[in-house]
Amino acid sequence: MRRISSFLIAAALIAGMVGCAGGGYTPPSQNLEIRTWYDLDTVRNNLAGNHTLMNDLDSTTPGYEGLASPTANQGKGWDPIGSSNDSFTGTFDGHGYEIRDVVINRPDEGDVGLFGVVGGEGVIKDIGIVNVTAIGEDGVGGLAGGNRGTVIDSYSTGNVTGGRRVGGLVGENQYASTVSDSYSSANVNGGEYIGGLVGYSYYGTVGNSYSTGNVTGYKYVGGLVGENQYASTISDSYSSANVNGDEYVGGLVGY
Fold this sequence. Notes:
Largest sheet: 10 strands, parallel
Strand content: 35-45%
């Protein structure tokens, strides 16, 4: 009996060692259910995961003050998820819910939005970004600063401000990217490549979408898209935005 007991103890120890491989590290779930700002913040550690929003997030939701309010992060507000070097390549399904009241105050930074950059395999769908305040330099949008993937069935309201490539929903739409079945009624202000929905579209597609609100810039200013370049396409879309600018200004497309 003692020999059998020793064998069982050794087996248990080996099993425990296997279960704690890597010093006891347990990888984070790749499929998050998001109910609080804390949950949303965890998405940045799961950039290739499949995530689902389970309810609206706003200024009364746990985690707002420390993560998404005007005083969060030493006054910089929300830290965008994903960057040019480490983009979001998973799926974010909003399930028709809204993310409200997020503040992003990073006037010297690029790739500014709830998401910094959505990568080529990334998909964001069925989400509303409501009453957003997004301030950045280059590549600024209410939902995403840069999109290289797919944004579908989404919308934004609020105020978006930047220097270049600024859009109410997406700042820059590039490299076989798509924005479809979406809209923005955000007020958009900036310098160059300023659009009510998308600031700058480069080899991108915009379809079945529209914009309203006020769009103000200096050069390449459009009610829907500021500049549509290099085999980019726009289809079944419109704008009723008020547009103001100095050079290359259009009700639908600036240039």
